[in-house]
Design goal:
The protein is an alpha+beta fold. It has helices spanning 8-38, 43-58, 62-67, 87-97, 100-108; strands at 69-77, 80-84, 115-117, 120-123, 129-134, 144-150. The chain has a six-stranded mixed β-sheet with strand order 2-1-6-5-4-3. The chain is globular.
């Protein structure tokens, strides 16, 4: 029995449709999780923060990364926890924190694979970096998202 021939463009279109549907599903999952944990429609703000952070780390924009941290912050510097009080402290040890290995973790993290719980959002499989919304006012109507912990990378 002979199967009917299908045009290659129809086959490719179908494959793209199924692939994009899978991406939409996985993105929808993290979007819904963030909205559930962090507040209605918060996923947009969290996605934008993540993508901005990822771009800053990828381009080694140290000033941008430094502006995205909540100080004081505990960060793993050369394998040891250290409390960094301000942007100046952070910039002085940036290269010891954002090793090639940690930069790779950030670069390869996909938004749809982020882990989120009531503590915040995790980058990396081992919780290398955490970010969350922080209240800047008593009403906390608009939290500001910041990096709250840098655990580093043990690889």
């Amino acid at each position: 029995m002979r199967l009917p021939r299908r045009p290659l463009s129809l086959i490719l279109s179908s494959a793209l449709l199924f692939a994009s549907a899978g991406y939409a599903d996985s993105t929808t999952n993290i979007d819904q999780r963030l909205d559930q944990l962090m507040g209605a429609n918060s996923h947009t703000q969290y996605r934008q923060f993540f993508l901005t952070f990822q771009r800053a780390v990828s381009h080694q924009d140290k000033q941008q990364v430094a502006s995205m941290l909540s100080y004081p912050i505990t960060a793993q510097v050369a394998g040891r926890d250290r409390i960094l009080l301000n942007k100046k402290d952070f910039l002085a040890v940036y290269d010891k924190i954002f090793t090639h290995s940690l930069q790779d973790v950030v670069r390869h993290q996909r938004y749809e694979n982020l882990f989120a719980n009531s503590d915040g959002v995790m980058i990396g499989e081992q919780g290398e970096i955490w970010f969350s919304g922080l209240c800047q006012q008593t009403s906390c109507s608009i939290p500001v998202i910041k990096i709250i912990r840098i655990n580093g990378n043990s690889r």
